Hints:
The chain is of the alpha/beta class. It is 49% helix and 12% strand.
Amino acid sequence: MNAPVGSVQGKPFATAAVHATPPFTLTKRSRRLGMYASMLILDAGAVLLAFLAANILFLDNPFASPGLKLAGLVVPVFAGIALNNRAYVLDALTDPVRGTMRAIMSLMAACVLVLFILQSLGLLREHHPAFIATAIGSGALLISVARAVSDNIARRVLDDNPVNELMIVDGVPHIPTPGRATLSAEDAGIRPDMSDPIMLDRLGNLLRTVDKVTVACPPERERDWTLILKGAAVDCEVRTDIDAMLRGDPCTTVDPSTIRPLSMFDLTLKRLLDLAIVIPALAFLMPLLILVAIAIKLESPGAVLFVQQRLGHGNRLFRMYKFRSMSAERTDAIGATSASRDDDRVTRVGRFIRATSIDELPQLFNVLIGNMSLVGPRPHALGSTASSKLFWDIDRNYWLRHACMPGLTGLAQVRGFRGATHHARDLEIRLAADLEYVRDWSLWLDIAILFRTFGVVVHKNAF
């Protein structure tokens, strides 16, 4: 049930009940992950068998030491190169030949690299090149067989279509498409309203397990639907030429945005980095977290944590945690009023933890849960304003920043853009940095931002 919490600029806001994650179901996305893992295991097994075959050919013993030792070097190198070459992504399922060639090229690169390393260390033996050449030939054949088996399994597991597609029809005629679910926007209570975060949260949760969305709508709604769907972190196309769509012609809509959602592979890498850092960080910081909680409780009555709904990945709302730094009775549920330097709502403990960014540490639990990342655009409260305007009223591209998981720190923060947003320009420069981050994301960019964060933990605008 929604509970009204006030209004900003005459627009009512309500804190919506945050949607609980549905019980685990084997969605196409999770089935694809299983297929990628199976393909990797089968490919690695094929490489191992190739070296056992070389042992049989040269030594009449499949488990002879030379082949096993070389396999022990090549298999992990092959797995790393194949992952880096994107041999286990969506087009490996939609185009098996391309996926097979990537895996075979990865095997060749791994073998050449291992030969180079052995040569550099003075460990290369006379039989090594012949063993590896034989393993490359038999490995290519076995990988092709393994991929044929994987392709056959994938067709059954994924119902001949590896992606979960949805057609949203908004006020135009349509013809149902086989293999793609169809949804009436009116019946579902969704609309391209750029000023309604609660509706966008509803749409974001509806699209949580969807891979691709096609929207059929009138031309005047094209731009809004494109922005909203890009922010919902889903591949999309918006069709306004209804006659062409009914004929089955290709989509000619030009996407006005260069923002694209991260692939499942990229999201997995990002999540692994988060967990590798946040788990030991929480263990190390636990004594500090306990001391701060005690200090907050001793100074003023009320909850230790301040919990506020924020806009996050896919335009979905989530509960973000912070240490309470203000008097409990004067906290701002929707963030309509930014804290000022001499804000009398802030307690003595609160002033210290805000100045040192310690108040943000409970968001490590958000990262652990999975509704935040260590690095990404900072999540904003529903009532956040600049120049007395809501953020999304200043720039319609605001929603595109939610194509990426919100972060504990981000590109805008390490550039010094933090603190209150008094003017529209304050929001615009942060939004530009956020969109730059989403466009240029890489694992190395995340690592660089994490290192740079240490230099801005204490900042003149943190109060």
